[in-house]
TrEMBL record:
SUPFAM superfamilies tied to this protein: MFS general substrate transporter (SSF103473)
Domain of life: Eukaryota
Region called Disordered, residue ranges: 241-272, 485-508
Protein's name in the database: Major facilitator superfamily (MFS) profile domain-containing protein
Transmembrane segments: 21-40, 81-98, 105-126, 132-161, 173-192, 198-218, 283-308, 328-348, 355-374, 386-411, 423-445, 457-478
Biased composition annotated in UniProt, kind: Polar residues: 487-508
PANTHER family per UniProt: MAJOR FACILITATOR SUPERFAMILY TRANSPORTER 16, ISOFORM B, SUGAR PHOSPHATE EXCHANGER 3
GO cellular component: membrane
Residues in Major facilitator superfamily (MFS) profile domain copies: 29-481
Family classification: Belongs to the major facilitator superfamily. Organophosphate:Pi antiporter (OPA) (TC 2.A.1.4) family.
Keywords: Membrane, Sugar transport, Transmembrane, Transmembrane helix, Transport
């Protein structure tokens, strides 16, 4: 059922907007939304060295009980895993709800709820709370609310964009992850001297503000603003309707269905988007489980850097000097700067090669020597540290970005669904939820392994990257077979081959 335009669009829209205008608006609002989500996750990484400063040379901060004792580092690791465990478990539920509820309202609720509990974690500073259970509980509830974000924004993007150039578009759009990490680090570090609680309160207010922007301006479904959803590819997906008559190009069958209103395109929902499918049905889509397991290890690597890189920088002598907490927080943002370029490059390459699995695996394998170089030579000088950090960020975040965006959207609109687009949020939740289990395990293990030396942490990261690439081997072979088995005599692919992604193998 169409709900009409969001209230902000009703207020500011002076005339009918084109499809392209709405697409730009959707990209912008969802970008802002996930910048806020990721920014609100950064304070925990920034304040680690304030809460547990024992290992820092010439520590400026005295620490905060219960994290300043001998088990402080392990407790911080437990805080991380509590957040990420609830995030990953909540993702499976959130994905199904996202396919069943109004995505705009669902996303708004998740952002405001996240802001409240991120802020409450910081309120522990102002209320002088020193009970471990309080911080653990705040992180767990925040993790559940944060789970609403990713399935929702990917589903919205999938509603508005077809598969053509999806990798490049989503690679650019997925810069929100790194922009959020960068802005979150800078904002959290900027108020650290006023008290570590301000880092959480400031970022909690930011994501709540983002939630109001989503509520006012996000058109989650094309039909809410006068476009008719048509399952297909690129421009055939959506057509403008005026008084029930189609006025933009579409296939003859869709035209007849639209005029007659019989909806005989395989959907059973009144709004044309079809029914939502179950977790088991979504898992049976070819490629979902394989990419989900790959993302498990890819996010293990990425989130270890996300949560522990600022702490690592304060404990590592770089060019003969130790960094302050604030400087380490600011420097760690360069890992995400590299990640921005990595996401764009991976998306562009996967579009040009029509090979998502080959691209993702290549990046993961290349990340192995990059991380080893960072560990070995990153302490030589500040410039060497920056260079190898950015290279590692590019190679680690490239496949992570590709799988969580373009691959998830591809699989969520897989042809085996026979036009049922409402698997988008569910498929995204399965892939990213499984990945988030790895994201929980990585920081948890780091909390224990770092007490024995950072070399063991980097061994874990190298093994994670290797296994992530190895898991894609069956899909890589399928993509190679697809390319070698379906070519014209002149070596060019047929239009059908070019349009379809080799990773999405159909049942023959």
């Amino acid at each position: 059922m169409s709900r009409g335009p969001p209230p902000g669009i009703k207020l500011f829209r002076g005339k009918e907007w084109s499809l392209q205008t709405y697409r730009y608006l959707v990209l912008l609002i969802t970008f802002i939304a996930y910048v806020c989500y990721h920014a609100s996750r950064k304070p925990t990484g920034i304040v680690k060295s304030v809460l547990c400063p024992d290992a820092i040379k010439k520590a400026k901060y005295s620490g905060w009980a219960p994290f300043n004792g001998p088990n402080g580092v392990s407790k911080l690791g437990e805080i991380d895993v509590a957040f990420l465990a609830c995030y990953s478990l909540g993702m499976y539920v959130a994905g199904h709800l996202g396919d069943s509820l109004d995505l705009r309202l669902f996303l708004t609720m998740g952002m405001i709820g996240s802001g409240i509990f991120v802020g409450l974690f910081g309120m522990g500073y102002f209320m002088n709370v020193h009970e471990f259970w309080f911080y653990l509980l705040m992180q767990m509830i925040a993790g559940l609310f944060q789970a609403t974000g990713w399935p929702s924004v990917v589903a919205v993007i999938g509603n508005w964009f077809g598969k053509r150039k999806r990798g490049l578009i989503m690679g650019i759009w997925n810069a929100h992850t790194s922009v959020g990490n960068i802005s979150g680090s800078l904002l959290a570090a900027s108020v650290l001297d006023y008290g570590w609680g301000w880092s959480f309160v400031l970022l909690g207010l930011l994501i709540m503000f983002g939630g109001f922007v989503v509520f006012l301006f996000l058109p989650a479904y094309p039909e809410d603003v006068g476009f008719c959803y048509i399952h297909g590819d690129e421009e055939e997906q959506r057509v403008k309707t005026v008084g029930g008559d189609v006025v933009e190009g579409e296939g003859e069958r869709e035209r007849e269905n639209q005029r007659s209103g019989d909806g005989s395109d395989g959907r059973d929902g009144r709004d044309g988007r079809g029914r939502s499918i179950g977790l088991y049905e979504a898992c049976m889509i070819p490629g979902v489980i394989t990419f989900a397991m790959c993302l498990f290890f890819a996010k293990l690597v990425a989130y270890t850097f996300l949560y522990w890189l600022p702490f690592y920088l304060t404990q590592t002598e770089i060019g003969g000097k130790y960094m302050s907490v604030k400087s380490a927080g600011n420097l760690s943002t360069l890992f995400d700067v590299g990640g921005i370029f990595g996401g764009i490059l991976a998306g562009y390459m996967s579009d040009k090669l029509s090979a998502r699995a080959i691209t993702a695996a290549s990046f993961m394998y290349a990340a192995i020597p990059a991380m080893l170089l960072y560990r070995t030579y990153g302490s030589v000088s500040l410039h060497a540290n920056i260079g190898f950090m950015m290279l590692s960020g590019l190679l680690v975040n490239g496949p992570y970005s590709l799988i969580t965006t373009a691959v998830s959207a591809d699989l969520g609109t897989h042809k085996s669904l026979k036009g049922d687009s409402r698997a988008l949020a569910t498929v995204t939740a399965i892939i990213d939820g499984t990945g988030s289990v790895g994201a929980a395990i990585g920081p948890l293990l780091t909390g224990f392994l770092s007490t024995r030396g950072w070399d063991e942490v980097f061994i874990m990261l190298v093994l994670g990257a290797f296994v992530a690439g190895l898991l894609l081997s069956p899909l890589i072979l399928a993509e190679i077979a697809e390319k070698t088995g379906k070519t014209r005599p002149n070596g060019q692919q047929t239009p059908r081959d070019t349009a379809s992604q080799p990773l999405l193998q159909e049942e023959r």
